[in-house]
Specification:
globular, three-stranded mixed sheet, alpha+beta, 7 helices, four-stranded antiparallel sheet, 7 strands
Length: about 210
């Protein structure tokens, strides 16, 4: 969302006395331009619940997430969490807190941004080489996926299913639409693409599935 739309959303939340739940993890992996401020950083009226998880930026098995709530809501959320009986191990929280305080987390993100940027470019080049004008690549400023738009009439759900059966990842773009006006495409992760050779092999397999 643009800065203007973010501000409009915050104004709406204030008028409606509504809550906005924000997961802004993509901002940590941005490959061009300046990051757009998180809603939470613009939230003068405290209508935003800012959530995130270290499973995406460290490793999945850590199973550690967080929620930043307005000060007036801290006691309420603490009470609810105690009632649910769930929580993250104290030791894991302490280790991650030290990891952040000592600067390791910031250095980790810097390294991963450079690595993911390289992997994204490797996959982009490989897809362009093997699929050419059969797809249109849409590279966002950040995130962990790229979008390969498909020509009208191509069943992206069927293609995604064939890819999954062949051991390839990818999600059908049309499945994410709320309206009946849908575009066809594949949402492809590049974070586990090891190098240019690996990207080339993956793109070749996807091209074979498309025929």
């Amino acid at each position: 969302m643009t800065l203007a739309r973010r501000q409009a959303l915050l104004a709406w939340a204030k008028r409606q006395e509504a809550w906005i739940i924000e997961d802004d993890y993509d901002s940590e992996y941005r490959y061009r331009g300046q990051p757009v401020p998180a809603l939470k950083s613009l939230d003068g009226d405290e209508r935003v619940l800012y959530t995130g998880t270290f499973s995406k930026v460290l490793f999945p098995a850590i199973k550690l997430a967080y929620l930043v709530v307005p000060r007036v809501q801290v006691a309420t959320f603490r009470h609810v969490m105690r009632g649910l009986g769930h929580g993250c191990p104290t030791l894991t929280q302490a280790v991650v807190a030290d990891f952040i305080d000592e600067g390791h987390f910031a250095r980790h993100l810097k390294r991963m941004r450079a690595l993911y940027k390289e992997r994204r470019e490797n996959l982009r080049q490989a897809l362009a080489h093997h699929l050419g004008n059969r797809i249109q690549l849409d590279l966002q400023a950040g995130g962990m996926h790229l979008l390969a738009r498909l020509p009208d009439g191509v069943d992206d759900v069927a293609l995604a299913n064939r890819a999954a059966s062949a051991g390839l990842g990818g999600h059908a773009l049309s499945a994410w639409y709320l309206s009946s006006a849908r575009q066809s495409g594949l949402l492809l992760s590049f974070t586990n693409v090891i190098d240019a050779a690996h990207a080339d092999a993956l793109a070749a397999r996807l091209a074979a599935l498309m025929g």
